[in-house]
């Protein structure tokens, strides 16, 4: 999956495999260490890629302010920001900055990118959390149901549903949800993370966390919490459905795969019921590949978050990214994208470790 | 399959070798239904793209006809069955013209990424070594990264954001293909590594065949058999990425071509005031196109994997008795399609392409 | 008391891509209490399908007719499995009839401890407390011979060896004390020394637990060792049923006779080997050997800094011109590695390996390539040894084209036809694709490809282990004939002593990377010196129930001696 699987060059090496698996002590600790070391090249590659792509085409000052300033003024700003130095020097400086957690300063509103992250990251985290809940609640049970009723009517309906989830762009799903629930039925708010009144109340809290759900609970006012949750419903569903479709499909295929293994037949021959076969014997082993692939879906989720946040004016990182894109502020874009690369690499690391924890063959 | 061998001429019939036709004949029941539905939707999409000039009542950038301007945000009427957009374009026409843009992007993106991906995957998987390791790490890194963000960065690099039809199409296609090269790379590399360990490749090595001969004659042709499958899945991803780019304002200018994502971006504000027609139709066009292509892809995936393939039920105890050892293990346990197929098919990594946008 | 199970007029059909296929046709069988009924047959004979029907385990593509009347252990009730509902099936599975699977490593769920899996079966049938179930699980593990069952009960399947896994699988089958156990090729995936232990355990199931056993197997030695009664199946029909001694002593059906005649019998090859040795020229021993290994050592690199795995350690042997060396060993003994090293597929990491005058330790592919025309190789798996997209003629022509003896496949066709005839395949088969040939036919085509350049050395890596016994007999015969005709030297690798014995001039026995014994067939098989060779030889069941009973006693003596 994400692994750097270097399949043993020699298929004749079969005898080596069982030995290696039984080597005591190597196990999990070693795996975590190796997996952790792999984060470094991943982040390095992505950060370099972003830098190379964005900077070979020109300097960000011209892109952002070109046309609005005279040539001399531009030159002055470029020199001041150090963009007239050789690229390699800038690159090394950029790497050094990233290593110390400095992702640059935006041009359009002159804020450190890290500050943008701290201010808006919470909103994206909240959205991702809720939509993951939606995705798990829909994807996993229905995936099991589809596997259980494989090739029957229920399965066909669920599969088409899953494909529809995936085929519908999140922004279109969001717009339709808005149209139905906010404009026509008027039961849920159109956009934003909270109404102005609720936001005001939360601002008076000491050290607001930026996670509105937590802040709303801290105000102790149920109305504020209800308001915050009502705002979260539609964006979470829009983004959650996209991932739910993928999860459903994943669970279904992998469970069907394990359902046809010998050990499921063996359990069946001991008199274990069909439901339990699916729920326990097929699901648990299937979970290992499922979790690893779900880790890769973090990327899908983040990409979707950009679109969802734009659709619902949900002021998170994705919304800000879109804003900076409109403003042609490529320092900000570069910073946010590089930062997201770090987040993706870290999440994949955690997910791989989780998958390893479930697999008893790695645990020992 | 086996008992007929003794009597039938050995060459397989053409209709059994054509990729999609063969699968269509092979499929039964619901799987056939899904495949047929997918083929119809996809066919409709291609048909519309080709005949867009005849089907669309107006041009994609037409704002007025002899009766004057169309007007902005007009509800559906006989002159404009799908209404008009905030910019005063005819929604029906732009939806129809949009198929053309989508098709062009798919073709360009897939052609660009398929060659690079297959070549790199083949070389990397076959030779292994440090080059392989480096490529795997790079491709894994790109693969794990949100493809939409990468496409945005690419779009900035290529066109600074917006451009003409061909510029826009190419920019979108290149952005998308950069994202998908790692996917082709991964699939082809995995296949190559698997095939490399097969006895027939080792046999060629023992016989003293050169590396280039082994790669072309034995590995390449066998490794690319899953390509139609990846092709369909990536086409749908290409459409979604294009729409995402358009929605964020990195699409093609409305005067250059019709693009659904751009139209949806412009329709975002309409929705809040209850104007539904500007969003619904381009959105449905995306959904139906992706749905059609994905249905085809999923069905091909199922049919390629004996464990997922459905079969007709037989009447009580009918059929000829299986011939002993025509195939090792006899008809019943010779995969694909026999009992063994149910028990140990290939792993899902080979065919199961993770869906990712 | 009535029989444990009566199968009456059973017919089973499957839906396949090529339409319905009938796997079992009008089979009638019965198993009494405390009896081992062996169902013998080659692949595709319908034996496994018959067995699975007893538990109602057929996939949904199957359609069944006839009746399978199963009675419980006490003999108080009878049910027709074919007509049961899913729920009723569940009730009888495990309690009335249990199953032992062929491949123990896939029959255990890798993510649950073995004890958990045993307890699950107990709880599926009775309201039993977790503690009580655990006690029973520990008890049954101990009784099937798992040491320290109190500790092992919490271990995961991957922590057990292959033989132990099969014991666990048998424990699972025994724990609910069913009247009948269906064992589907229970020892096929195991090494021969482990096989003997599992057969002993199954015998105890019958003798101590008083169970009936349906033993599905293709191995006549296993039948002779364990069965009380035998049913021979061919093409979905039972062609003969008899008491085990009667069947081996005086088989009635033609198919049974042919089957028994095809089974290799260890010790029968000694005569031919002696005759060949007598015919060798006087200066034969002075001729330069084709292959010579001195202190050969082969290591596979360990991953992620783990120590490398030494597959072959300090092995010496020679293969002289025209001589067949049989290399025998169990899985993981390093025998295949040696074959691959000679062919230049695996790197030699220590010692010396001379092949056709080249030192393989540190050789470059470029230098070795011209000599490759002098080496042939036959692979184990006939299913994957041909490129599925090329015709047989194109595949067989490959060596000719590669070494410039022909411009392309059509140019080589004349020679290809001769080669196909040499391996007794009609030349028209050249136009077929590999999947259109049977396993035996493919293995013969594989031989044709290997001898296309008339090599001086032929490496055959378990060429018959994937084949049915009757097909194996024909391929072995062909091999011997080709060897006589072309006079190539050969390394013949096999796990089966009896097979090696048929062909080899000399036999070398590998054990855990070491060569423990070498010599002529008469020496190694007649008077083995090494304790492992002795055990290996004694573990090999012979297809003769009377002789096998004696050998069993001999094996017990060896085991007790240490």
UniProtKB/TrEMBL annotation, chain A:
GO terms for cellular component: plasma membrane. Residues 121-355 form the ABC transmembrane type-1 domain. Residues 10-23 have a biased composition (Low complexity). The keyword Repeat does not apply. Residues 1-23 are annotated as: Disordered. It is a multi-pass membrane protein. It is found in: Cell membrane. InterPro entries: BPD_transp_1_N, MetI-like, MetI-like_sf. Keywords: Cell membrane, Membrane, Transmembrane, Transmembrane helix, Transport. One of its GO terms (biological process) is transmembrane transport. The chain crosses the membrane at residues 32-54, 127-149, 161-185, 228-251, 286-307, 330-358. Belongs to the binding-protein-dependent transport system permease family. This is ABC transporter permease.
UniProtKB/TrEMBL annotation, chain B:
The chain crosses the membrane at residues 34-56, 102-127, 134-158, 164-185, 227-252, 275-297. One of its GO terms (biological process) is transmembrane transport. It comes from the Bacteria. Pfam families: BPD_transp_1, OppC_N. SUPFAM superfamilies: MetI-like. One of its GO terms (cellular component) is plasma membrane. It is a multi-pass membrane protein. Its main location: membrane. Residues 99-297 form the ABC transmembrane type-1 domain. Keywords: Cell membrane, Membrane, Transmembrane, Transmembrane helix, Transport. It is found in: Cell membrane. Belongs to the binding-protein-dependent transport system permease family. This is ABC transporter permease.
UniProtKB/TrEMBL annotation, chain C:
Pfam families: ABC_tran, oligo_HPY. The keyword ATP-binding applies. It is found in: Cell membrane. One of its GO terms (biological process) is peptide transport. It comes from the Bacteria. SUPFAM superfamilies: P-loop containing nucleoside triphosphate hydrolases. It is a peripheral membrane protein. GO terms for cellular component: plasma membrane. Keywords: ATP-binding, Cell membrane, Membrane, Nucleotide-binding, Transport. Residues 5-260, 296-537 form the ABC transporter domain. InterPro entries: AAA+_ATPase, ABC_Ni/Peptide_Import, ABC_transporter-like_ATP-bd, ABC_transporter-like_CS, Oligopep_ABC_C, P-loop_NTPase. The keyword Cell cycle does not apply. Belongs to the ABC transporter superfamily. This is ABC transporter ATP-binding protein.
């Amino acid at each position: 999956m994400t692994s750097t699987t270097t399949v043993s060059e020699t298929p004749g090496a079969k005898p080596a495999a069982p030995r290696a698996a039984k080597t005591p002590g190597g196990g999990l600790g070693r795996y975590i260490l190796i997996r952790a070391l792999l984060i470094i090249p991943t982040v390095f590659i992505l950060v370099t890629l972003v830098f190379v792509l964005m900077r070979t085409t020109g300097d960000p000052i011209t892109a952002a302010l070109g046309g609005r300033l005279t040539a001399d003024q531009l030159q002055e700003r470029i020199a001041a920001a150090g963009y007239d130095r050789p690229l390699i020097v800038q690159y090394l400086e950029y790497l050094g900055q990233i290593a110390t957690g400095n992702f640059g300063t935006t041009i359009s509103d002159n804020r450190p990118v890290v500050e943008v992250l701290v201010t808006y990251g919470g909103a994206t985290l909240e959205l991702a959390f809720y939509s993951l809940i939606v995705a798990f609640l829909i994807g996993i049970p229905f995936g099991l149901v589809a596997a259980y009723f494989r090739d029957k009517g229920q399965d066909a309906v669920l599969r088409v549903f899953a494909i529809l989830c995936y085929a519908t762009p999140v922004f279109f799903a969001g717009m339709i949800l808005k149209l139905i629930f906010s404009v026509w039925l008027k039961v849920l708010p159109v956009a934003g993370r909270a109404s102005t009144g609720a936001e005001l109340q939360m601002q008076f809290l000491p050290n607001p966390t930026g996670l509105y759900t937590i802040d709303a609970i801290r105000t102790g006012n149920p109305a504020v919490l209800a308001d915050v949750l009502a705002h979260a419903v539609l964006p979470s569903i829009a983004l959650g459905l996209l991932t739910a479709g993928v999860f459903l499909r994943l669970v279904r295929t992998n469970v069907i795969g394990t359902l046809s293994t010998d050990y499921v037949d063996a359990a069946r021959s001991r008199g274990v019921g069909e439901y339990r076969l699916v729920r326990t014997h097929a699901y648990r082993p299937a979970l290992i590949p499922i979790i690893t692939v779900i880790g890769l879906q973090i990327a899908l989720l983040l990409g979707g978050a950009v679109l969802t946040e734009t659709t619902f004016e949900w002021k998170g990182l994705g919304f800000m990214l879109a804003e900076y894109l409109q403003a042609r502020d490529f320092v900000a874009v570069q910073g946010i994208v590089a930062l997201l690369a770090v987040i993706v690499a870290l999440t994949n690391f955690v997910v791989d470790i989780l998958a390893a924890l479930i697999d008893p063959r790695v645990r020992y | 399959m086996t008992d007929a061998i003794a009597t039938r001429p050995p060459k397989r019939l053409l209709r059994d070798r054509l990729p999609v036709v063969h699968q269509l004949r092979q499929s039964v029941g619901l799987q056939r239904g899904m495949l047929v539905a997918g083929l119809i939707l996809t066919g409709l999409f291609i048909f519309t793209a080709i005949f867009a000039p005849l089907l669309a009542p107006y041009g994609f950038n037409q704002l007025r006809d002899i009766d004057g301007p169309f007007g902005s945000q007009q509800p559906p009427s006989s002159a404009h069955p799908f209404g008009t957009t905030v910019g005063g374009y005819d929604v029906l026409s732009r939806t129809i013209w949009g198929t053309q843009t989508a098709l062009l992007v798919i073709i360009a993106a897939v052609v660009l990424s398929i060659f690079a991906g297959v070549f790199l995957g083949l070389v990397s998987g076959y030779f292994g070594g440090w080059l392989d390791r480096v490529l795997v790490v790079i491709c894994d890194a790109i693969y794990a990264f949100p493809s939409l963000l990468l496409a945005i960065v690419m779009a900035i690099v290529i066109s600074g954001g917006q451009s003409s039809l061909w510029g826009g199409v190419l920019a979108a296609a290149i952005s998308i293909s950069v994202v998908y090269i790692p996917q082709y790379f991964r699939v082809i590399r995995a296949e190559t590594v698997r095939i490399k360990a097969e006895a027939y490749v080792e046999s060629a090595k023992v016989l003293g065949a050169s590396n280039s001969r082994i790669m072309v004659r034995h590995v390449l042709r066998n490794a690319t058999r899953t390509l139609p499958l990846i092709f369909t899945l990536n086409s749908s991803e290409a459409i979604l990425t294009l729409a995402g780019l358009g929605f964020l304002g990195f699409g093609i200018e409305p005067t250059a071509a019709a693009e659904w994502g751009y139209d949806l971006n412009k329709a975002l504000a309409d929705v809040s005031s209850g104007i539904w027609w500007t969003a619904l139709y381009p959105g449905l066009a995306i959904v139906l196109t992706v749905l059609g292509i994905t249905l085809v892809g999923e069905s091909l995936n199922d049919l390629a994997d004996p464990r997922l393939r459905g079969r007709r039920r037989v009447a009580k105890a009918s059929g000829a008795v299986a011939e002993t050892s025509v195939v090792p293990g006899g008809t019943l346990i010779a995969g694909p399609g026999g009992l063994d197929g149910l028990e140990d098919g290939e792993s899902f990594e080979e065919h199961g392409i993770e869906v990712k946008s | 008391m009535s029989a444990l199970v009566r199968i009456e007029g059973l017919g089973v059909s499957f839906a396949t891509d090529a339409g319905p296929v009938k796997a079992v046709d009008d089979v009638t069988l019965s198993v009494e209490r405390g009896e081992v009924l062996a169902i013998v047959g080659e692949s595709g004979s319908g034996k496994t399908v018959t067995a699975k029907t007893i538990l109602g385990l057929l996939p949904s593509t199957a359609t069944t007719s006839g009746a399978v009347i199963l009675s419980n252990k006490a003999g108080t009730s009878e049910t027709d499995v074919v007509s049961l509902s899913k729920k009723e099936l569940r009730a009888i599975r495990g309690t009335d009839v249990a199953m032992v699977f062929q491949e123990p490593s896939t029959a255990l769920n890798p993510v649950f401890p073995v004890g958990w899996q045993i307890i699950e079966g107990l709880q599926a049938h009775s309201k039993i407390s977790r503690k009580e179930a655990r006690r029973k699980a520990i008890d049954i593990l101990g009784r099937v011979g798992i040491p320290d069952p109190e500790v092992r009960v919490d271990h995961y399947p991957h922590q057990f060896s292959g033989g132990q896994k099969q014991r666990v699988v048998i424990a699972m089958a025994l724990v609910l004390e069913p009247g009948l156990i269906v064992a589907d090729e229970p020892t096929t995936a195991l090494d021969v020394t482990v096989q003997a232990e599992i057969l002993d355990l199954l015998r105890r199931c019958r003798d101590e637990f008083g169970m009936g056993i349906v033993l599905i197997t293709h191995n006549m030695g296993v039948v002779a060792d364990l069965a009380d009664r035998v049913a021979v199946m061919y093409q979905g029909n039972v062609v003969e049923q008899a008491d085990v001694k009667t069947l081996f002593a005086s088989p009635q059906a033609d198919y049974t006779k042919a089957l028994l005649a095809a089974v290799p019998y260890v010790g029968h090859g000694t005569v031919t080997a002696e005759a060949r040795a007598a015919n060798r020229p006087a200066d034969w021993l002075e001729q330069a050997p084709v292959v010579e290994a001195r202190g050969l050592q082969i290591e596979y690199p360990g991953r992620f800094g783990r120590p490398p795995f030494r597959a072959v350690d300090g092995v010496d042997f020679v293969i002289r011109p025209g001589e067949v060396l049989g290399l025998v060993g169990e899985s993981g003994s390093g025998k295949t590695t040696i074959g691959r090293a000679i062919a230049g597929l695996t790197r030699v990491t220590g010692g010396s390996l001379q092949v056709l005058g080249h030192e393989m330790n540190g050789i470059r592919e470029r230098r070795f390539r011209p000599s490759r025309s002098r080496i042939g190789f036959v692979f184990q798996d006939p299913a994957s040894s041909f490129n599925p997209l090329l015709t047989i003629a194109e595949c067989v022509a490959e060596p000719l084209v590669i070494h410039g003896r022909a411009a392309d496949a059509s140019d080589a066709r004349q020679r290809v036809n001769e080669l196909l005839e040499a391996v007794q395949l009609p030349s028209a088969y050249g136009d077929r694709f590999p999947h259109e040939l049977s396993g035996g036919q493919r293995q013969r085509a594989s031989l044709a490809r290997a001898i296309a350049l008339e090599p001086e050395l032929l490496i055959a890596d378990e060429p018959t282990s994937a084949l049915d016994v009757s097909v194996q007999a024909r391929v072995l015969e062909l091999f011997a004939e080709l060897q006589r005709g072309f006079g190539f030297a050969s390394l013949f690798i096999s796990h089966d002593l009896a097979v090696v014995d048929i062909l080899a001039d000399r036999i070398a026995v590998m054990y855990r990377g070491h060569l423990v014994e070498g010599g002529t067939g008469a020496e190694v098989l007649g008077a083995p010196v090494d304790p492992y060779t002795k055990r290996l030889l004694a573990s090999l069941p012979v297809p003769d129930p009377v002789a096998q009973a004696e050998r069993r006693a001999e094996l017990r003596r060896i085991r007790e001696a240490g």
